[in-house]
Specification:
This protein is α/β, with parallel strands linked by helices. 30% of the residues lie in helices and 26% in strands. Bound molecules: cytidine-5'-triphosphate and magnesium ion.
Length: 372
Amino acid sequence: MSVSAIIAAAGSGERFGAGFPKALIQLGDRTLLEHAVACLAPIADQIIISAPAGFEAQISELVGEGVDVVTGGATRSASVRNALAITTGDYVLVHDAARALATSDLAQRIVAALKNGESAVIPAIAVIDTVKVINADGYVASTPDRRSLVSVQTPQGFTTSALRQAHAAHADATDDAALIENGGGRVKVIEGEARALKITTQADLHTALAFLGFNSTYRTGVGIDAHAFGIGRALWLAGLHWPDEIGVDGHSDGDVAAHAMCDAILAATQLGDLGSNFGVDRPEYAGASGVQLLEETLLKITEAGYFISNVTVQVIGNRPKIGKRRAEAVSILSQALGGADVSLSATTTDGMGLTGEGKGIGAIASALVFKQ
Ligand code: CTP
Ligand code: MG
């Protein structure tokens, strides 16, 4: 009897807020999606990823050959259905990319229960909080007995025929078992895992890192950069092109915000600085973009076993005004750092100094990193 696995990875990760799909967030040495694939690979004969529209090729390249990629839908249920259409196994496991740290042992126990004759099997853990049912007007309607409540997880396992039937009406639910229940089917509950938590927010990512054995030996670093305005140069700042502004001189694109961030990260990780890693003696970096240098910096610190907790950067100068494009800049800078928590601010210096006199732009950054 063969086993297929569907990984629902088509969500946008709104609550995480990285500006790109949550499945591509870095957790330790790989993305959430790669963790999910690694969980299922030892058990499944076929793996199908339901990917966000527009990310299919990138995801195919990331997970390599032998994994099918389909385009997801507008809801999780629709994403699962799109993968179900090409499912070949007798059994099917449906897993959330967001539950990156579920173990192969859990997937194995789900399959074992299916082979034992169950047609729907889900992992669950006891709820810790008292749970209340509330009315629309904000008052408590009832308090169910906590002993009868569980929080459910993925992977959830089904006979493929039962799951196809449950999805036939194209209904939506937040998990697949609910569709089986709605059709009157029996759903077996087995013991889940604390580490199969759903990564929804930045805080969850830190919890997940703790499961991977990352301790809290944090290190900080600071970085400063400044460039004088240069006639005829385009302005690149905080990963963005600023069309109507005067650019700055420099070996690279002169993005002082990205450069200060690189310096802060390299300082925190004791890997030197921008000059020693990408300086004028490295012609391959001439004209490199700030985003490219951030990506290269991330590679270097990842190789050295470090991970970013957060990076802040403050731009110092009279122009340009950052505010209107802050969200756009943060998204690009964060993406260059694998989804790291980035914040961006700006200040003037009351007409004093190089930047206040309007001679150039500066930036100061600080980074917090940690090691496994
Ligand atoms: N998912 C999906 N297709 C959708 C919506 C969600 O495949 N249209 C997937 C997500 O990628 C995730 C899982 O379903 O792996 C659980 O969803 P959730 O944790 O809510 O992820 P997101 O929807 O991406 O996050 P948010 O709700 O914060 O936007
Ligand atoms: Mg969602």
